Input
Amino acid sequence: MSQSSQPYARHAYQVMALGLPLVGSHLAQISIQITDTVMLGWYNVHSLAAAVLAGSFFFTLFVVGSGFAHAVMPMVAKAVSEGDQVQIRRVTRMGLWLSMLFAGLLMPAMWWSAPILRLLGQEPEISALAQSYLRISGWAMGPALLIMVLKSYLAAQDRAQFVLWVTVLGAVGNGVANWALIFGNLGFPELGVQGAAIASLFNNLLMLGGLCLYAILVLPEQSIFVRIWRPDWEAFRRVFSLGWPIGMTHFAETGLFSASSVMMGWLGVLSLAAHGIALQLASMTFMVHIGLSQAATIRASNAFGKRDVPGLIAGGQIATILSLGMVCVTVIFFLVVPEFLIGLFLAPDDPHRTQIIGIGIGLLAMAALFQLADASQVMVLGLLRGVQDTKVPMVLAVFSYWAVGLPAGYLLGVTMGWGGVGIWAGLVVGLSFAALTMIYRFWIQRLWQAEIT
Output
């Protein structure tokens, strides 16, 4: 039975069955960052501001490298639909190769990050704290990228449930390790931001070990680690060709948010701290849309491999509707209880609590505005990756975020003096432009071409 002949309820069930474990694993993954933010916010405001800068720096580089992992997902899903076990092994191995090579190239930038941050106008004390975090967490880049490849490899074969449980256990372990190492509990020294970095490194290594063991024991016929040192240049080229535009697309969007962090740093430590909290909340809800988008990628790849255009359309429509439903829930929370949400990240007796909450309320209002645009663009990106279209979306993303969104944020926030709210309004403009152009790319151009060929 083709996907097109299935009722919409069946499509919805399959997207949810695939998407919910992915959503859960992404939420558990980002909870590691949120735990760092919350606990460092309880520790002191300067540590929180440093973690915001360091986290933005790390994540911007991480998402570029994760492009190779995201390329593995549609390639493995297409190979599954074609019954090609050899192809599954080839692209997964080269995804692991590319991820490790990229991680090695990034280490110098994280080791000497303080001068870079100072050049971007950040305070010397905050830059030094951020560097102390990155010099430790930089060693987690390789394991984190390998985890992403293995998640894509397993999820494309409907094995996302184990990914979920490994990530949940990692998040719990990170919270306990943070509590011990940041504050000096359980007999450990009080290490502040360095303690948070050590906890993240330790838990990434544990999660990587769990995923590797699962792949070896449950999928021995694919033998992805056997003779992994042997190059496969043809598969290497194909994963690289599909993956680097995905990485640059991620960089365009994440770079926009990182640039907004830099501009918020110009406004002072309290504005930067409020920005970090609001960004963590927005990122947490965004994980739902990423999970559904990846489910859409896998479903689209299966339909693409079978040349099932009606099934591709129906699956895309269902995934989009589910994502929009989550947007409605998020907007309500951001507008109705912003004080409560922001207050979770701050100690009750923090002398700056009222000021940070006041700044954060305005930022969450802007975050509510860009939820629809952000969810729409990431969903369409997932569908485009499913049909292995990554280069044109990259161009659209770079233009939308850097030629439209960033100048708008600078104009409204800095030039016109709107402050943090103006900077975030620029995010709304850039994300909205990206959503509209990518919707046109998939639903008009690509599907029209598919229907006539």
